[in-house]
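[09:14] KT: can someone run the structure on this one? pasting the chain below
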Amino acid sequence: MYVVVRGGSRQHKVTEGDVLDIDLVDAQVGDTINLPAVLLVDGEKVTSDAATLANVKVTAEVLEEVKGPKIKILRYKNKTGYKRRMGHRQRYTQVKITGIK
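[09:31] RB: done, structure tokens below
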């Protein structure tokens, strides 16, 4: 059995015991959070009905805050001498799926 959950602005396919990085959540390490289910697959049966999915509870435990890979950005305009270098590193919350009910 697996569930597709929404974690921030992305969707993740999870089963119980998975560890994944979701968009930053305002929670402390060790807290339990609930993730909304988008799709439920239980063997042969696929459920996408919103009324049924409202009863599905996906709980996750916050493990830590992590940073993603560094993204290098370079802006350059030809023949003007304009160069600008920037970088970005996205912050994520690492969670472990503890239960699907």
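[09:33] KT: thanks! Helices lie at 50-53.
[09:34] RB: yep, looked fine to me
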